[in-house]
Write a structure and sequence with these properties.
This protein is α/β, with parallel strands linked by helices and about 525 residues long. The protein folds into three domains: about 90 residues, Urease, subunit C, domain 1, CATH 2.30.40.10; about 120 residues, Diaminopimelate Epimerase, Chain A, domain 1, CATH 3.10.310.70; about 290 residues, Metal-dependent hydrolases (TIM Barrel), CATH 3.20.20. It contains 16 helices and 25 strands.
Length: about 525
């Protein structure tokens, strides 16, 4: 049995710090002084040299498979104009030389960074992609621009109608190439699926990247990357588990769009918690609105910069109530995407109804939960409904949010410290590939409420700043609790899984602005070292 000993360190355990930790197999077997743990025979000795060891980081919500696929797609993050987008697209086409008819896919553009603030259209793509259908997603993933070949291939017209979705039309009544919300998922389902071997290689490659930043567990929404085929996801991850090749633990958030899809899944017998140590089923994931940047997040009051616009509800009240209740009755946890306060109301109505009909410790939660008020937050606490939040949204959303909803509503939102104090359980995540999945960046943004330049001074709405310990909990204990695994991971204690991250500095003692400079020196998952810094 594999044995490891960490000594001469600062090992964060519940209630304090110890010097040493001994591991046998996949579990922590002893915590104590360096002398005590070093007395264990036949173990690899790892001198921490005063470095800080924490529980392995957990991302409470991201799209792991979408990130894996993005490694071979066009990255538009940081583009400051349509011309820069075109330049990256041209470089990609010159390098990859796709065959005629092959889909060209990319993600990451954000028109909020463009001087003119305009969303690109098919006219910006057609001359570069005359022989290839192109699908380029906004950074949020809720808005996409298609070229003319893709529009034709998908048979989108002025008469196309989608519940919970929008096809933008120009002054002549023809599609501009911009599609939103449910149309995006529908279009994505028409893409050719990557083969199993390709997916396996990309998952392993993506896992190598997540291990470098200390991620040992991920709550991942993957079905959109495989056209909604949950069996493909299960087969992919279980086959990697059986070969001991899974690079990170996955809790699968199942985006099953409607009642038939949910019932088909339930008929297979899978439920929340079923699986293996490195892969298990998590909650039903339900999209109830879109993104604030795309003005598709559902608000109770109109957008400040778009009078008469309230966003896009993906479901009617009755349909959402039925979907949540069906999953809840079947023993499933439910996680609903809600960014706008209007969507949050719908989610809480559906969850409260389900809990009244069948009371239990369901640990339903809201993904994102960016807008709300005290009444809604108190209601969440009363119902035992949590939130999977993304602290990096604070610096990246701030300029956009102030325009979209105004200062008063923006300050009432992103109020995760308030939610914590009210008793709402929270986990921290990235929504990658929307944001980078580095948990230390997430901890920095939760603690400082600042951007990479340490601005604004004092942080945006500093009353909502977390302590370092609270921010670490978001990415450790919080993620474990959200998946009913607090008895297995999220803390370093005897009997717990040996999921460990070692940092190059003590983030509890350095100035808060320096947390973003911290790096991961070692990552261990289940007693196996998966990353060592050079």
């Amino acid at each position: 049995m594999r044995k490891s000993v960490f000594y001469n360190g600062k090992i964060a355990v519940p209630g304090g710090i110890v010097e040493g930790m001994a591991i046998e197999g996949q579990n922590i077997v002893r915590l104590g002084s360096s002398e005590e743990v070093c007395a264990i025979q036949d173990a690899e000795k790892i001198d921490l040299a005063g470095r800080l060891a924490l529980p392995g980081f957990i991302d409470g919500h991201m799209h792991f498979l979408a990130y894996a696929l993005s490694l071979e797609r066009i990255d538009f993050l940081g583009c400051c104009s349509v011309n820069e987008m075109r330049s990256r697209l041209r470089s990609f086409l010159d390098e990859k030389r796709p065959e005629p008819g092959e889909w060209v896919i990319g993600r990451g553009w954000n028109h909020e960074l463009f001087d003119d603030g305009k969303i690109p259209t098919k006219d910006d793509l057609d001359d570069l992609t005359p022989e290839n259908p192109a699908m380029l997603a906004r950074v949020c993933g809720h808005v996409v621009v298609l070229n003319s070949r893709a529009i034709k291939l998908l048979e989108l017209t002025a008469e196309s109608r989608f519940a919970g979705g929008v096809v933008d039309l120009d002054d002549a009544g023809e599609p501009t190439g911009v599609i939103r919300e449910s149309v995006v998922e529908w279009a994505g389902s028409k893409l050719p699926l990557p083969g199993s071997d390709k997916l396996r290689k990309l998952v392993v490659r993506a896992g190598e990247e997540t291990s470098k930043v200390g991620l040992t567990s991920i709550h991942s929404d993957d079905l959109g990357s495989v056209g909604g085929d949950f069996q493909k996801i299960i087969d992919l991850y279980l086959s990697l588990c059986e070969e001991d090749a899974m690079p990170v633990r996955i809790t699968e958030q199942l985006l099953l769009r409607n009642r038939p899809a949910l019932e088909h899944f339930l008929s297979t017998g899978w439920r929340t918690g079923d699986g293996m140590p490195f892969f298990h089923i998590g909650p039903l994931k339900v999209l109830t609105d879109g993104s604030m940047g795309g003005r598709t997040a559902l608000l109770r009051k109109e957008y400040s910069d778009a009078p008469g616009v309230f966003g896009v509800p993906i479901y009617g009240h009755d349909e959402l109530n039925d979907l949540v209740l069906t999953a809840h009755r079947a023993g499933m946890q439910v996680a609903t995407h809600a960014i706008g306060d209007g969507a949050l109301n719908m989610c809480l109505d559906a969850m409260e109804r389900a809990l009244l009909i069948k009371p239990r410790d369901a640990r339903h939660y809201i993904v994102h939960c960016q807008m709300g008020d005290m009444e809604q937050y108190r209601r969440m606490a009363r119902l035992g409904v949590g939130a999977a939040i993304q602290p990096p949204f604070v610096p990246s959303d701030r300029p956009m949010a102030l325009k979209r909803i105004g200062e008063e509503r923006a300050l009432a939102g992103y109020a995760w410290k308030t939610m914590k104090e009210l008793g709402v359980f929270l986990s921290g995540g990235s929504d990658s590939p929307v944001e980078k999945f580095d948990p230390l960046w997430g901890i920095y943004t939760a603690v400082t409420r600042k951007d990479e330049n340490s601005l604004p001074q004092g942080g945006w709405n500093p009353s909502q700043k977390f302590t370092v310990a609270e921010a670490v909990d978001l990415y450790t204990r919080g993620g474990a609790y959200a998946s009913f695994e607090e008895h297995r991971k999220g803390t370093l204690a005897e009997g717990m899984l040996a999921d460990v991250v070692v940092l190059d500095r003590d983030i509890f003692s350095i100035p808060e602005d320096e947390i973003k400079e911290a790096r991961v020196d070692l990552t261990m998952v289940g007693g196996r070292i998966v990353h060592r810094a050079d």
